Amino acid sequence: MWFLRNLVWLVIMILVVGFAILNVHETVSAVQLPGKVYKELPANAVLFAAFVLGMLTAFALTLFHQLRVRAAVGRIRRENEDLKRELSQLRNLPLDDLVPTERAGSLVG
């Protein structure tokens, strides 16, 4: 499994480096950001910045999702422990308080 994972990473790196080499002389005419306009930037720098921004956004969204899921799992685990404790207490109730009203066989019929 580790071999396939490393092979996939190698192929991705070869593709990224090849794309960067093929687009060394390409430029982006203008990038408009709030309050600033950047002109004649290398395409590789713009693509790298967009990639980093996208990865940071994905990381933040995944982090928030994981925190929500872990909180839900903790809440469910506490509820499960409470229910197990209650079930154990119900199982340990004495049977002396039960009053037999009728036989079980007479109810069928």
Primary descriptors:
109 residues; alpha+beta; two-stranded antiparallel ribbon; 68% helix
Describe what this molecule looks like in 3D.
Helix content is 68%, strand content 13%. It has a two-stranded antiparallel sheet. The mean pLDDT is 88. With 109 residues, it is an alpha+beta fold.
What is the mean predicted local confidence, pLDDT? 88
- Gyration radius (Cα, Å) is 32 Å
Sheet bearing the most strands, described?
2 strands, antiparallel
The coarse silhouette is: elongated
Q: What's the total count of β strands?
A: 2
- Helix share, percent: 55-70%
- Read across the widest sheet, the strand sequence of neighbours is 1-2
Q: Please write the string of helix (H) and strand (E) elements.
A: HEEHH
- Contiguous uncertain segments of 5+ residues: none
Strand content: 5-15%
How many individual helices?
A: 3
Helix/strand/pairing category:
alpha+beta
Q: CA-to-CA gap between the ends?
A: 64 Å
Helix and strand arrangement:
Layout: H1 2-22, E1 27-33, E2 36-42, H2 43-91, H3 104-107
Antiparallel strand pairs: 1-2
Write a brief structural summary.
The protein is α+β, with helices and mostly antiparallel strands and 109 residues long. It has 3 helices and 2 strands, in the order H-E-E-H-H.
